[in-house]
Task: inverse folding
């Protein structure tokens, strides 16, 4: 998929003025945040589980090679095949190879963010295959020719009216206007595709080394129809998604649904272990897993290892004020919100996503809800630091920072400057607010700057203590 | 040229600043026993299963013995206005169906309206069913028909997921090709966060609890 993360500012402004988007985002915020809080409150062990999940992920990452090898052995023993892909292109080649070998005409897909990451749909369509997204949200955005705007609710930016329009254009009339009618229409349209599919592609929330199983967690059942009815089932997953045992997977399951959709559990949790067996009456004839690295082993080496704990629940974006204001498309690639602002520059390159680590107020809400306790604000700050070191930040900004550092390391000079600035700003303020400020128009163009009280905090403090 | 597999494993070991684990380290990991916190539950397992399952729009009917199951299915069929036809998992082959019923044990086709499946376990923690695929319980039964009836014996209900995994491991055939944990009817909230049942899988899931 094309990376458009460097257009963040323009796309953000556009998003803020998009009335439909703002209406859709408003609904999402209320839903996700409230439900998660309720679920977390109802499980007294929730905080303890977050601590344990963090420790377990760290253990897995410390022994990632071992668990991947054990997982591969178990998949092979169950009659499946594991493929390894260094990058997106290699992953596409492997999947295309399987599809071509079996003469695939129709490919159904369950939701998979890794397949978005590797740009799979375009590659299959280019080869003349019909690709059908079966998750309702993914189906909606496929009709709209848009990428997902949220990792678990891909069409969260669409209003019901927009979905009605898309369905009417794609399926013909009469136009359906209620949610039950729309869901029913999608159900009818997709039924036949599941049965006709040659290949079914799903993601993998977890890969269980103990049993060689891939695990998906869904609400709709589309992933299950996809993988059960197609002749060939292909799982796409990142290498970091392996877990040692079923009991280990359970720890994450207890956190995932609660953190993601605010449910105690999703409707379906499915373990897939190899292809159809001799006495089975249904199931795919072939079972493949494509393990995708695409920058992950590089991440393991450095200070961003903690990002590999991510279980893709989406809680960070649900709680992010920036995501809540601009939605997912402004981020310009596959992964939006705080986790996307860390992953996008790391996977696609720092200079391809300059704005993302800066599109953060460091308020910390994301880290406070992350089920595996990833210190997202720290990682974003670290990326800013790297941008500065690699001179990706604008020259003007670096010069300003140098000047600030010079002043900040000289207390006398710094305090004198502060006193002058405080008095100056107080003088130009009207009713405690400043409407226009030269050199700070980026701020004052869209909001007022509160005017200071006229004296600095230090002056007031010292005055209070009678030491002035 | 090295293979992608070798490259990725080498990359991981390089990142971890070590070579492959030796035999002692590997066997220590292989025998590691996870002991994560399980939610404390102070409630009868059967009661909790029913309460949780019903909280997500699932329905439950209780009967005394397996012999009562066909009558309970008949009552459900009548209430839903379905024809007397069902795909029944061969695990329930011993059930005797009343005259007029047309029952088969094959996979579910696209026109299948009703399936009846045997569960391997019920999980009280979340009120979920665990079904293991195989000739006795084809996976299509769980997802294709609009109405899914699952037969669960009260003694099959365990408190936590970990106990259900143990039941799965203990089977002679081991882990199933498809293990389906089902916590109610299919649902979606993809249009404006409005919950709608029957997205792609069954519109209704009905448990016949035996014992």
Result:
């Amino acid at each position: 998929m094309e990376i458009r993360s460097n257009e963040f500012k323009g796309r953000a402004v556009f998003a803020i003025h998009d009335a439909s988007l703002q209406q859709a985002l408003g609904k999402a915020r209320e839903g996700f945040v409230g439900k998660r809080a309720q679920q977390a409150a109802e499980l007294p062990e929730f905080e303890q589980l977050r601590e344990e999940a963090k420790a377990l992920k760290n253990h897995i990452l410390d022994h990632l090679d071992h668990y991947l090898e054990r997982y591969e052995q178990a998949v092979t023993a169950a009659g499946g095949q594991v493929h390894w892909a260094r990058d997106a292109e290699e992953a596409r080649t492997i999947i295309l190879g399987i599809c071509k070998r079996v003469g695939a005409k129709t490919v159904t897909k369950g939701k998979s963010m890794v397949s978005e990451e590797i740009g799979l749909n375009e590659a299959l369509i280019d080869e003349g295959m019909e690709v059908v997204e079966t998750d309702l949200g993914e189906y909606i955005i496929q009709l709209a020719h848009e990428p997902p705007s949220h990792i678990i609710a891909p069409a969260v930016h669409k209003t019901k009216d927009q979905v009605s329009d898309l369905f009417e254009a794609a399926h013909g009339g009469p136009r359906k206007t209620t949610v039950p009618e729309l869901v029913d229409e999608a159900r009818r349209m997709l039924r036949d595709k599941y049965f006709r599919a040659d290949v079914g592609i799903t993601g993998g929330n977890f890969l269980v080394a103990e049993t060689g199983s891939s695990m998906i967690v869904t609400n709709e059942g589309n992933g299950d129809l996809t993988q059960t009815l197609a002749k060939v089932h292909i799982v796409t997953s990142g290498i970091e998604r392996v877990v040692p045992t079923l009991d280990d997977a359970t720890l994450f399951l207890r956190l995932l649904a609660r953190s993601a959709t605010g449910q105690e559990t999703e409707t379906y949790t499915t373990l897939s272990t190899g292809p159809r067996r001799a006495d089975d009456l249904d199931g795919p004839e072939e079972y493949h897993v494509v393990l995708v690295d695409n920058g992950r082993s590089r991440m393991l080496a450095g200070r961003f290892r903690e990002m590999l704990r991510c279980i893709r629940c989406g809680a960070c974006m649900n709680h992010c004020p920036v995501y809540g204001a601009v939605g997912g498309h402004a981020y310009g690639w596959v992964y939006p919100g705080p986790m996307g602002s860390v992953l996008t520059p790391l996977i696609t390159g720092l200079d391809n996503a300059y704005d993302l680590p800066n599109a953060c107020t460091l308020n910390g809400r994301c880290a406070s809800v992350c089920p595996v306790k990833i210190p997202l604000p720290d990682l974003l700050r670290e990326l800013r630091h790297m941008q500065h070191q690699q001179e990706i930040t604008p020259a003007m900004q670096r010069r300003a920072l140098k000047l600030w550092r010079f002043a900040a390391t000289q207390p006398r000079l710094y305090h004198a400057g502060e006193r002058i600035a405080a008095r100056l700003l107080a003088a130009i303020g009207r009713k405690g607010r400043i409407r226009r400020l030269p050199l700070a128009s980026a701020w004052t163009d869209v909001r007022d700057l509160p005017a200071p009280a006229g004296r600095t905090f230090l002056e007031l403090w010292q005055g209070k203590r009678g030491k002035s | 040229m090295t293979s992608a597999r070798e490259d990725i494993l080498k990359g991981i070991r390089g990142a971890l600043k070590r070579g492959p684990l030796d035999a002692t380290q590997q066997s220590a990991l292989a025998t590691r026993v996870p002991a994560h916190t399980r939610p404390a539950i102070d409630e009868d397992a059967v009661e909790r299963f029913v309460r949780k399952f019903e909280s997500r729009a699932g329905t439950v009917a209780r009967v005394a013995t397996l012999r009562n199951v066909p009558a309970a299915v008949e009552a459900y069929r009548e209430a839903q206005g379905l024809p007397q036809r069902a795909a029944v998992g061969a695990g329930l082959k011993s059930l005797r169906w009343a005259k007029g019923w047309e029952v088969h044990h094959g996979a579910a086709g696209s026109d299948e309206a009703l399936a009846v499946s045997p569960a391997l376990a019920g999980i009280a923690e979340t009120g979920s069913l665990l079904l293991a695929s195989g000739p006795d319980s084809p996976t299509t039964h769980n997802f294709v028909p609009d109405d899914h009836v699952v037969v669960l014996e009260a003694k099959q209900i365990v408190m936590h997921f970990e106990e259900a995994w143990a039941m799965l491991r203990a089977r002679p055939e081991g882990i199933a090709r498809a293990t389906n944990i089902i916590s109610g009817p299919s649902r979606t909230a993809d249009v404006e966060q409005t919950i709608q049942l029957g997205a792609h899988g069954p519109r209704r899931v009905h448990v016949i609890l035996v014992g």
User: Anything to note?
Assistant: Chain B has six helices and twelve strands. The mean pLDDT of chain B is 97.
